[in-house]
Amino acid sequence: xxxxxxxxxxxxxxxxxxxxxxxxxxxxxxxxxxxxxxxxxxxxxxxxxxxxxxxxxxxxxxxxxxxxxxxxxxxxxxxxxxxxxxxxxxxxxxxxxxxxxxxxxxxxxxxxxxxxxxx
Length: 119
Description:
Distance between the termini: 38 Å
Largest sheet: none
Radius of gyration: 16 Å
CATH topology of the domain at 3-71: 434 Repressor (Amino-terminal Domain)
CATH class of the domain at 3-71: Mainly Alpha
CATH superfamily of the domain at 3-71: lambda repressor-like DNA-binding domains
CATH architecture of the domain at 3-71: Orthogonal Bundle
Strand content: under 5%
């Protein structure tokens, strides 16, 4: 696992105005405190579901933040994903489009509700 992701997760937990213990942070993101420790030490990778929860919780966090520092940049990863999508059947592509649309709606709703609470 990348040291970058370990530092990113530790930084989120210790963020100003949000500072939480590992136990508090674990409870908030739905994992065990030992799993948070393993993430922060670089001994475990966050699941896609956990990345989605973190992005929903922290408005200034973007998916690409998890990929900085890798030898492969976001453009090459995106190109590979496009190639994989092109090989999918039309039905699978439709399901994927609906999933992405739904995830964007959830992200926008979370962001909007967070902004309204801050005002």
